[in-house]
Design a protein that fits this description.
Elements: H1 5-24, H2 26-29, H3 33-38, H4 45-56, H5 59-72, H6 87-101, H7 107-115, H8 119-154, H9 161-209, H10 212-216, H11 241-250, H12 255-272, H13 278-285, H14 289-321, H15 323-329, H16 338-346, H17 351-373, H18 375-387, H19 393-417, H20 421-434, H21 436-445, H22 451-471, H23 481-497, H24 504-514, H25 521-530, H26 540-565, H27 569-589
Helix pairs in contact: 1-9, 1-17, 4-9, 4-13, 4-14, 4-17, 5-14, 6-12, 6-13, 6-14, 6-26, 7-8, 8-9, 8-17, 8-18, 8-19, 8-20, 8-22, 9-14, 9-17, 9-19, 12-21, 13-14, 14-16, 14-26, 18-19, 20-22, 21-22, 21-23, 22-23, 24-25, 26-27
Length: about 600
C-alpha cells in the first residue's frame, strides 16, 4: 500500500506515544511485585475493564469474525460461542467475585489457598506454572509471525516480515517491561479509543457505500436471519459457489448439533473459570470482589458494538465489491485480503493511518497483556518461592524485567524457527486447553477434590489431546471435546479418590473466604459448627438465572451493530428492546446485589 505522509505520521506518533507512557509511569510500577503485575490493586474497575476489552480485541480474531460474517451472515453471531465469548458472563455473575476474594497475585498462587502446601498442591502448582509460561511462549511465537505478515501487507517499505515483527515487538516489549501493569492498562485505554474510532468509521463508510438493495443482490436467502433449523440452509450457488465448499469444510451444515456441542463445551469451560492469562490478571488486580465482577461485566458492553461495526462493515464491502470477482475467478479466496482491500479502496487519507494504528493497537494490546501476565508466574511462583524467598522488592521487579525479556526472546526464537506457526500454535493450545475444563470446574464445586486430582486431571487431558488428533485425524476439534473431558475427568477422580483429602483447616479457610456453592456439605457443616453466624452461599438459582439473562444480553450487543450496518431497522429495534429489558433485570438481580 502507498501510505500518505499524514498516515505515516499518525502511526509513528501512536508508537511514540505508547513508549512515552511506559517510561513516564515506570517509577510507580517499580515499587514492588504487586504494583508491577497488579497495579497495586488501585486501578479503577472501569479502566481495567476497558483494558481487558482492548486485550481481547485482537486482529486475528477480528479477521476470523469477518470471514464468518461474510459466509454465514447473522448466524455468525452464534459462532464465537466456540471460544466461548459468554465465559465473560460467568465471570461477571459470580466467578470474578470468587477469584478476587482469594487476594493472590497469580492463578498458581491461588491453588495454595485451595489445596494447601502438600505434595498434591505442589504438583498442581507446577502444572499451572508450566501451562501459563508455555502458552505465553506459543502466543509470542504466533504473534511474531502474524504481525510480520500484517505489517508487510500494509506498510510501503521493502522490509522482510520478520524485520517488521522485530521492530513492533521491540517497541511493545519496551513499554510493557518498563511500566508493568500500569503501562499496559493505560496504553490499552488509549488503544481502545483508537480502535473504537476506527471500527465505527469502517461501519459508517460501509453504510455509505453499500445500499440494502446491493447487499440483497449478492447474499443467499437466510443470510439475514439470526435463528436456524436443524440444518444451515444457506445455498451460495450462483452467487459465490466456492462458499458452499467452505461451509462443508467448516462442518457447520448440521448447525443445531454443532450449536448444542458449542453450548455444552462453552458451559463446561466457563464454569472452570479463566485460564491463567491477562483476563485472570485483571480480575486479581481489581480493588475488591464486587469491582472485579463489574470489570468483567463492562468488557462485553464496551467491546462488542464497535468490533461488530467493523466486522459487519468489512463483510458487506467485501460481499458487494469482491464477491463478483471471487465468483468469476473461481479461485480459492483468502479472507485475509478483505481488510487491505477495504482500506485501500474505501478508507480516506488520515483515517487510513488511524485505522492501521488501531489494528496495530489491537495486536499490541493482546501481546502486551500476555507479556505482562506470564512473567508473574516465574518470578512469584518459582524464583520468589523456591530460589530466593528473602529477596528485596527491587530485586523481584528487576527479575520481572529479565523474565519478560527472556520470555520474548524464546517466543521470537520459535517464531524464526517454525514455518507453519499456525499449526504449532493450534497444537500447543489444543494440548494445553484440552484438559483444562474438568479439573478447574471441580476445584470450585467439590470439596473432596484435591491437588493430586487436579494434577492428574490436567495431565490426562493433556495426553488425550495430544493422542486424539493422531487416532482420529479427521475429527472436528469441537467434537473431540467430550473425549477430552471424559479422559480428564477420569484422571481427576482416580487422582482424588486414591489419595487423601486435603486437610480440614485448608478446606475450611478456603470455603469461609471464597464461599462457593456446590458440593461442600461436609465442610459447610464444620464451618457452621465453629461459627454459627456463618451464612452459606445459597445463590445458585439466582446466579444461573443471571447467566441465562446475561448471555441473551451479550448476544444483543453482537446483533444490534450488524443490523445497523446492513440497515435492518425492525430487527435492530427488537434487539434494542431485548437489550434494555435484560439490562434492567441484571441491574436488579445482579448489580444491586453484589457483595464483597
Amino acid at each position: 500500500m502507498n501510505l500518505a505522509a499524514i498516515d505515516i505520521a499518525i502511526i509513528a506518533g501512536y508508537l511514540g506515544f505508547t513508549l512515552l507512557i511506559g517510561f513516564y509511569i515506570s517509577k510507580k510500577a517499580s515499587t514492588d511485585l504487586d504494583s508491577y503485575f497488579l497495579g497495586g490493586k488501585t486501578i479503577p474497575w472501569w479502566i481495567l475493564g476497558v483494558s481487558n476489552a482492548s486485550g481481547m480485541f485482537d486482529i486475528t480474531g477480528t479477521m476470523w469474525l469477518v470471514s464468518m460474517c461474510f459466509v454465514y451472515g447473522l448466524k455468525s453471531a452464534w459462532l464465537p460461542w466456540i471460544w466461548p465469548t459468554f465465559n465473560q458472563i460467568f465471570l461477571m455473575v459470580y466467578l470474578s467475585v470468587w477469584l478476587r476474594r482469594s487476594n493472590v497475585m497469580t492463578g498458581a498462587e491461588w491453588l495454595k489457598t485451595r489445596f494447601g502446601e502438600g505434595k498434591g498442591a505442589q504438583l498442581s502448582h507446577l502444572i499451572v506454572v508450566i501451562f501459563a509460561i508455555v502458552s505465553a511462549v506459543g502466543f509470542i511465537a504466533y504473534a511474531f509471525k502474524g504481525i510480520g505478515k500484517f505489517a508487510s501487507t500494509f506498510f510501503p517499505w521493502e522490509l522482510a516480515p520478520d524485520t517488521y515483527a522485530l521492530i513492533i515487538l521491540a517497541v511493545t516489549t519496551l513499554y510493557v517491561i518498563k511500566g508493568g501493569m500500569y503501562s499496559v492498562v493505560f496504553t490499552e485505554l488509549v488503544q481502545f479509543i483508537i480502535m473504537t474510532i476506527a471500527s465505527l468509521s469502517v461501519g459508517i463508510i460501509a453504510m455509505m457505500y453499500v445500499s440494502p438493495e446491493e447487499l440483497n443482490a449478492v447474499i443467499p436467502a437466510g443470510w439475514k436471519e439470526l435463528f436456524f433449523g436443524w440444518t444451515l440452509d444457506l445455498d451460495w450457488t450462483g452467487l459465490i459457489d466456492s462458499v458452499n465448499v467452505k461451509i462443508q469444510e467448516d462442518g457447520f451444515s448440521l448447525f443445531t448439533f454443532f450449536f448444542l456441542m458449542m453450548v455444552f463445551k462453552g458451559v463446561m469451560s466457563s464454569m472452570a473459570g479463566p485460564v491463567p492469562n491477562y483476563d485472570m490478571q485483571r480480575i486479581l488486580a481489581a480493588k475488591s470482589p464486587s469491582e472485579a465482577a463489574k470489570m468483567s461485566g463492562i468488557v462485553s458492553l464496551v467491546m462488542f458494538v464497535p468490533r461488530y461495526m467493523m466486522v459487519a462493515g468489512l463483510s458487506i464491502l467485501a460481499l458487494v465489491f469482491l464477491g463478483p470477482k471471487i465468483q468469476s475467478s473461481q479461485e480459492v479466496f483468502d479472507f485475509e485480503l478483505i481488510l487491505p482491500y477495504a482500506i485501500q479502496n474505501f478508507i480516506p487519507v488520515g483515517l487510513t493511518g488511524l485505522l492501521i494504528a488501531g489494528l496495530l493497537a489491537a495486536f499490541m494490546s493482546t501481546y502486551a497483556a500476555t507479556v505482562n501476565a506470564a512473567p508473574a508466574y516465574f518470578v512469584n511462583d518459582i524464583y520468589k518461592k523456591y530460589i530466593n524467598p528473602e529477596g528485596s522488592k527491587t530485586l523481584y521487579v528487576r527479575m520481572s524485567y529479565w523474565a519478560s525479556v527472556v520470555l520474548v526472546i524464546i517466543g521470537v526464537g520459535f517464531g524464526f524457527l517454525v514455518e507453519s506457526i499456525n499449526e504449532i500454535t493450534q497444537w500447543i493450545f489444543g494440548a494445553l486447553f484440552g484438559g483444562y475444563s474438568a479439573a478447574n470446574l471441580l476445584k470450585w464445586h467439590w470439596w473432596r477434590f484435591n491437588g493430586h486430582g487436579y494434577f492428574w486431571g490436567m495431565m490426562a487431558g493433556l495426553i488425550a489431546s495430544l493422542v486424539l488428533p493422531i487416532l482420529m485425524p479427521d475429527l472436528q476439534p469441537l467434537y473431540g471435546f467430550p473425549y477430552l473431558l471424559i479422559f480428564s475427568l477420569m484422571g481427576c477422580l482416580l487422582g482424588t479418590l486414591l489419595t487423601p483429602a486435603e486437610p480440614d483447616q485448608v478446606l475450611i479457610a478456603f470455603y469461609k473466604n471464597v464461599r462457593p456453592w456446590g458440593f461442600w456439605k461436609p465442610i459447610r457443616e464444620k464451618v457452621q459448627q465453629s461459627d454459627p453466624s456463618f451464612i452459606p452461599n445459597n445463590d445458585f438459582g439466582r446466579d444461573m438465572t443471571n447467566i441465562a439473562v446475561g448471555i441473551v444480553w451479550q448476544l444483543t450487543l453482537v446483533v444490534i451493530p450488524i443490523y445497523l450496518v446492513i440497515r435492518e431497522f425492525i430487527p435492530m429495534s427488537v434487539g434494542i428492546g431485548v437489550f434494555l429489558i435484560t439490562s434492567w433485570i441484571l441491574k436488579k438481580n445482579w448489580l444491586d446485589k453484589l457483595k464483597d
